[in-house]
Design goal:
The protein is built from three helices and no strands. 76% of the residues lie in helices and 0% in strands. It is an all-alpha fold. The chain has helices at residues 2-30, 39-62, 72-94. Helix 1 (2-30) runs antiparallel to helix 3 (72-94).
């Protein structure tokens, strides 16, 4: 059972970094730091976009429109942290797991 919680924690950590990477690459695109014609950059951007959009689209429908500012990645990151904290402080101790 400890292995399952550890794997879930690491998956959520990895996804957290994927969201952060998606935000950073989007900023780099907007400020013309990255060349949009570079195939490697496009592949990385597509992967990050495809990995994050399924969770960001529903959040964008729920969050009020703030003009050009998109806070849905911040809400998603807070949600990931909440799930990790909930697993660590509520679910794991209820199953008798105190350290993972």
């Amino acid at each position: 059972m400890i292995a399952i919680f550890s794997i879930l924690h690491y998956i959520l950590d990895l996804y957290w970094w994927i969201v952060v990477g998606s935000v950073i690459i989007t900023w780099l695109y907007v400020f013309n730091v990255l060349n949009p014609n570079n195939q490697s950059v496009r592949l990385i951007k597509r992967f990050l976009h495809d990995a994050t959009e399924p969770l960001l689209i529903p959040l964008r429908r729920l969050i009020p429109h703030l003009g050009t500012i998109d806070i849905s990645p911040i809400i998603l990151l807070l949600g990931i942290l909440f799930v990790q904290l909930f697993l660590r402080t509520t679910i794991a101790p209820a199953l008798g797991i105190h350290h993972y």
